[in-house]
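Q: Start with the shorter request: fold the first protein.
A: Done. Sequence, then structure:
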Amino acid sequence: QVQLVESGGGLVQAGGSLRLSCAASGGTFAFSRYAMGWFRQAPGKEREFVGVISQIGAKIYYTDSVKGRFTISRDNAKRTVYLEMNSLKPEDTAVYYCAADKYGSEWSREPKEYDIWGQGTQVTVSS
């Protein structure tokens, strides 16, 4: 059974930083074949694309609202993808999800393109 498990969420003041991790488990999960995306969902809102990293990390794309503040990276040997979040704002408050798109790319930006999802981790930014 393939699983993605996020961690690192929490409560932080505006201007602060958090680093989210998403670890893949499951013996047959070929992590390096998957583009990995981050999404977020605030209460009462639709799930929103945050960013995506291609299979070997050569290409990364961010939504405009997080460019320059968030950084996605991955370690295929550890089967883990990271989301470094700096200069956090109250509007970044949401549940953050990682997701895996087999054979995807930096163009994988819609939730429906992703095959596997984590359970989410809450990020709360206080003003």
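Q: Next, the second protein, separately.
A: Sequence, then structure:
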Amino acid sequence: QVQLVESGGGLVQAGGSLRLSCAASGRTFSSYTMAWFRQAPGKERESVANSWSGGSTSYSEAVKGRFTISRDNAKNTVYLQMNSLKAEDTAVYYCYARRGVLDAWGQGTLVTVSS
């Protein structure tokens, strides 16, 4: 079972940037679909970005054009580059991995955007 550890969260001013990282254990990282979700206070967890093993990516409308998901299969790591951050991007960001019926969540990292 893959284990995920996120890092890179913190406090940033509106308009700023942050890069989140998610390091995965295991030897089959390249075969996993990797994703970032977020959960703002009082709201449901929502999908932010996806990175499929074949190389394609997708984004929610809320972050399209501002966030970029990427992965380094040699380092077993997926990244989320977040630019032009807004106050409404404030949330706990979670890394997610899925392969077939197997999936795993990271512990989450808090991103706070001050306006």
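Q: Describe the second briefly.
A: The two ends are 40 Å apart (CA to CA). The CA atoms of residues 32 and 99 lie 5 Å apart.
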